[in-house]
């Protein structure tokens, strides 16, 4: 168990479940890739309630793909916005304190006795990482949303007249 802890820590993976992490993650990865639930169940030798209750998410993936405008096939995605790569300087203007908080969290994780009262939890770490991804996604999506909703009041924000944004 200690070696599993060390391996997960080295890889930057935070999880309270150590011994069954591979069983659950392999089932979820197969589900994300569109593998039939019967095949996943057979691989793990689970009954239906165990597999759905403990190892798979309850997300209706096919429905989510369809509602997002994609094929229900898990292998065909194209996001036009992904071709846009906003400059780091512009990203830092969305949720500008995120970098500071992330640096504080990293410092606290390296040295828990550094006097910073920030809580070092899996949730805080995941939240900050999500915020850092969402600011880039927000900027990428804004280019397309501006075309479809040109009169929306959000475009009056100074961020959208920033020279970095206008490039």
UniProtKB/TrEMBL annotation:
<protein>
    <recommendedName>
        <fullName>Ndc10 domain-containing protein</fullName>
    </recommendedName>
</protein>
<feature type="domain" description="Ndc10">
    <location>
        <begin position="2"/>
        <end position="163"/>
    </location>
</feature>
<dbReference type="InterPro" id="IPR031872">
    <property type="entry name" value="NDC10_II"/>
</dbReference>
<dbReference type="InterPro" id="IPR038279">
    <property type="entry name" value="Ndc10_dom2_sf"/>
</dbReference>
<dbReference type="Pfam" id="PF16787">
    <property type="entry name" value="NDC10_II"/>
</dbReference>
<dbReference type="GO" id="GO:0003677">
    <property type="term" value="F:DNA binding"/>
</dbReference>
């Amino acid at each position: 168990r200690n070696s599993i802890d060390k391996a997960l820590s080295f890889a930057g993976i935070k999880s309270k479940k150590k011994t069954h992490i591979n069983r659950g993650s392999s089932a979820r990865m197969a589900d994300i890739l569109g593998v039939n639930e019967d095949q996943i169940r057979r691989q793990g030798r689970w009954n239906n309630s165990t597999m759905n209750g403990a190892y798979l998410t309850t997300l209706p993936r096919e429905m989510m793909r369809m509602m997002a405008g994609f094929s229900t096939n898990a292998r065909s995605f194209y996001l036009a916005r992904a071709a846009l790569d906003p400059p780091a300087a512009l990203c830092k203007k969305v949720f500008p304190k995120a970098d500071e908080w992330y640096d504080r969290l990293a410092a606290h994780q390296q040295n828990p006795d550094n006097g910073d009262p920030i809580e070092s939890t899996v949730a805080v770490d995941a939240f900050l990482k999500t915020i850092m991804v969402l600011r880039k996604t927000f900027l990428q999506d804004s280019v397309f949303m501006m075309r479809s909703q040109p009169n929306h009041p959000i475009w009056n924000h100074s961020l959208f007249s920033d020279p970095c944004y206008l490039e």
